[in-house]
Amino acid sequence: DVLTTEVVEMVLRSEGRWGVSDIGRICRIQQGRSAQTVLLSKKLSLATRVVKNIVKRRREGIPNCIDIKATFPTAWSSSQLAGMADSEFSDCLGILTSDQDLSAEHLKTLLTRTKQLYGSVRSMKPWQVLQLGQAVTQLSDRDLQDLDVSDLGILSFLGEMDEWNKKQTLWFPAASPWSVIRSGNLS
Fold it and tell me: Quick check: 185 pLDDT over 60?
């Protein structure tokens, strides 16, 4: 069998590095949704082999950060991600929340788990908010109001997110810094 666990891990790591490169991001933007779905399906098929081997080795089937890096976050269920040890989860949070293919269920799980570690959004330090990555789109109205939008790093980060729901976008007043960020006029 040519596709050993090590080969699959190497392919997935390589694809992950390519996906976050400038060219990879441009290609992803230009791909149609169906092409992205096909690619995700192929990645999941490959990752299933690795995940099964890990689950065989560990009775509980909970990944650690090395397992996440060897595959990708979407390859794991929400409950498996929620079950990660605190130190593993916090060490891997930036990787977990940067996966563009995470479902809303995954993102909600990651947000809940992050709040368990760091406390409420109001008490989070700016670097902790930035670690939320895609999970920031799952913040409640209350959480959004509690964010320190006077921090330009957080403000810029929030402005880069595309997956806001209608209710969240209505929360951002037209005269707020949000409109400035979206227009690109930060001078």
Answer: no
- For the chain, what are the domain ranges? 5-183
pLDDT above 70 (res 173): no
| CA-to-CA separations, 154 to 25, 63, 93, 147, 159, in angstroms, rounded | 22, 29, 17, 8, 9
Output the pTM of the full model. Answer: 0.66
Q: Which of 93, 97, 100, 51 is nearest to 71 (CA)?
A: 51
For 28-84, how does the pLDDT look when each residue is reduced to its tens digit (9 = 90+)? Answer: 778 777 777 777 777 777 777 666 666 666 656 788 888 888 788 888 899 999 999
